[in-house]
Structures are given as structure tokens and as C-alpha cells.
């Protein structure tokens, strides 16, 4: 009887403890826009065009999904846009250093 009670308390404790683990914060539109601006100002349009264009397209798609009420997909597109814009920014900086 004691063993079963302890086992139940352990399971409940783990379930509650794991449910309160903080998750990574969502990327906001403002953060993505700032990263896109930074990439553009660093010359990513010419030095890393694929990443820069795909970041812009993902950002536009995120705004479209948000206006349609699909918040989950909007957050995914914002995260993809941020990652691509960051890559475009980094590539443009590397290209500038190589010259």
C-alpha cells in the first residue's frame, strides 16, 4: 500500500514538474522585421539573395496566416523567416569580410 502511494506521488510530481518547464519564447513580427532590416542594410539582397528573398516570403506568408487566424502556422513561418534572415545577414557579413 505504501509503495503504491509513493509511486503515485512520484508520477504526479513528475507530471506537474515537467508541465512547468519553460519553453522557448516565440519570435515576434518586430524581431523578424528588425532582422530583415539588418540583413538588407548589410547588403544581403546582393550577397545572399536566396536566403534574403526566402526570409521575406516566409514573413509575408506568416502575416497572411495570421490574418486568416492560423496562429500556429504563423508562428512557424515567423521562426523560419527569422532563421533565413539571420543566415542572410551572416552570409552578407562573411562576404564583406572576404573582399
Largest sheet: none
- What is the helical fraction, as a range of percent? over 70%
Rounded mean pLDDT is 85
| Overall body shape | elongated
Uncertain runs are: none
* SSE order: HHHHH
- Got a strand count? 0
- Residue share in β-strands: under 5%
Specify Rg, calculated over alpha carbons.
21 Å
Write the layout of secondary structure elements.
Blueprint: H1 2-19, H2 29-41, H3 44-47, H4 49-67, H5 71-98
Describe the protein in words.
This protein has 99 residues and is mainly α. It has one domain. 83% of the residues lie in helices and 0% in strands. The chain contains five helices and no strands. α2 packs antiparallel against α4 (49-67), α2 (29-41) packs parallel to α5 (71-98) and α4 runs antiparallel to α5 (71-98). It is elongated. The termini are far apart. The mean pLDDT is 85.
